[in-house]
Amino acid sequence: MKKSYINILTKKALYTTAAIAISGILPATSVLAHGELVANEFVAQENTVISGKPGETITVPVQIELVPDGGGKEPATDAATVTVNLGGQTQHNKTLEFAASEFNTPKIIDLKYTIPEGTTPGPLSLEVIMTSNVTTGNNQVWNKDRDYVTIQVVADSPAPADTTAPILTLVNSINGIFNAASLPAGFEFSLDESSEVFVNGESKGFFDVGTHSLALPTPIQGLNTVTLFAVDAAKNKSEEVSFSYMYDSIEPVVTGAPDSSPNENGWYNKDVTVTFTAEDEEGGSGVDESSVSAPVTVTEDGTHEIIGTAKDYAGNTGSSDPITIKFDKTAPVFEGIENGRAYKLNQVVNWTASDATSGLASEESGTLDTSTVGEKSITVKDQAGNEIEIHYTVEYDFGGVLQPINQNGTSIFKAGSTVPVKFQLKDANGAFVTDAIASIYYQKISTDASGVEEAISTSAATTGNFFRYDLNDNQYIFNLSTKGLTSGTYQLSITLNDGQTYNVQIGLK
User: Fold this and answer.
1) Which DSSP letter does residue 42 get?
2) Which of 20, 32, 428, 457 is spaced 20 to 30 A from 44 at the CA atom?
3) Rounded Cα distance, 29 and 378, in Å
4) Degrees to nearest 5, angle at CA 380 with 378 and 386
């Protein structure tokens, strides 16, 4: 603490005195012998004054001496210890020792005094509190009168004006592109002096020197700028500091589209490719094109749900609505019939059909049409447009040539004779067929003829090459004239209107 000596008082400053009387327990009529303590403000004698500011502890030199105060009898005192303080501040107690009857011997003691806060500037009179340990007996040392010293309380010097602005520094400025999940919760800054901090013009309170954290202001979609400055107690404003970042919490919109349309039943039967595109909202961070799902080509039967995704640069992931592709490129299958097979006229042939994926768009079962002869087909389709077509033929039940021609080709007839060629036709139920169209052709295949010689027919030869039907014998007949034919082996070919041709050989001699 400061000690100031100011030459204010004159050499003849007033003594402040205190007396400690010497007394004892004597009869009332006894004459007392006294010893009186006198305190003088030593600095007053030196033309100085002690001064200090409120809150300071100062040192005040005080001169104390014991003087006789006897009352008619030779004064005497016991040896005494005197405890002294200023203004009752016992925390600063000091002691002085006086021998017995040590009169008129000045003693200087430095006493301390703490000036209370809030003390009004100006002179301040302090009582010198003196107590003796000799308080009984005939030769007491006691304080007869109050003694005072004076100090000067001076005002604090005004602090110099603060014109230095605080320094606010960003510790971890936030930069980049963020979404709701990746955006930091707050940021840090530091101050070089206690100041009030403002964020985007709004006070966030007072902060001490050091590093502090604050929550980010509520972000908006797009570019966000956060500006900070500090104001100290002297109203000095720091330079503004700021950081900016992009905030995007909206996922991109992803759209998928197939490269062709399904049929009227909603099915595809050819490979289909779904391609995806993505768009970000206006003012967003933009779509990362490398993240857009690659095209998906469907080649396998079944119902497929395809979803595409894409990310924006803030890390938001968008998904397309599911795109349903119903795909079936496998044709239905028949059961009960085979492709290329021949069936007999009026034969009952039942069939069924099925499709494992899209299902049939036509009848699932039925009976083949065998009511007429010839080449026929049947077709079924599934919902995807795949179809299967079965080709078949309907034929007469040909029983082979009848006598006089052996079916094994061993019959030999006389050249120039008429050879009757006969056969029967039936349906699958054994009923005779009477309305078939049959024709005959022949061809010499060898000059040799060997086999069984057949009897000569007396029937007239048939003109043309078509068979006629004999209702009596339920057979087809053609009388073949061999006039002009030379000896050898001939192949006879019977062609029916069901598309079938039957061959048999005969010999001529």
Assistant:
1) H
2) 20
3) 164
4) 130
User: What are the residues facing 481 on neighbouring strands?
Assistant: 418
* DSSP 8-state secondary structure symbol assigned to residue 339: T
* Best CA proximity match to 67, nearest among 113, 32, 44, 98: 98
CB of 147 within 8 A of CB of 180?
no
What lies within 8 Å, CB to CB, of 237 at 6+ separation is: 165, 229, 230, 231
pLDDT in tens, 407-433: 999 999 999 999 999 999 999 999 999
Q: How far is CA 391 from the centre of its chain?
A: 60
pLDDT (tens digit, 9 = 90+) per residue, 162-212? 999 999 999 998 999 999 999 999 999 999 999 999 999 999 999 999 999
For 109, phi then psi, to 5°, come to -130, 135
- 233: tokens are 């107690």
Of 404, 505, 385, give the one whose Cα is nearest residue 454. 404
Q: CA angle at residue 146 from 141 to 148, to 5 degrees?
A: 120
Neighbours of 270 (CB within 10 A): 11
Token pair belonging to 389: 């077509």
Q: How far apart are CA 415 and CA 481, in angstroms?
A: 9
Q: Is 454 helix (H, G, I), strand (E, B) or coil?
A: coil
What beta strand segments (E) does 122-200 contain? 122-132, 141-142, 147-153, 168-170, 177-178, 186-191, 195-199
Pairing of strands 302-306, 323-327: antiparallel
Distances (CA, A) of 101 to 68, 248, 457: 8, 98, 200
Query: Is the distance from CB of 385 to CB of 328 less than 8 angstroms?
Result: no
- Sign of the CA dihedral 312, 317, 322, 326? positive
**Pairwise CA distance, residues 467 & 477, whole Å:** 5
CA distance 444 to 195: 129
Q: How far apart are CA 13 and CA 40, in angstroms?
A: 10
Tokens of residue 378, six digits? 């049947």
Alpha-carbon span 116 to 56, nearest angstrom = 8
- Residue 412: which of 294, 276, 508 has the closest Cα? 508
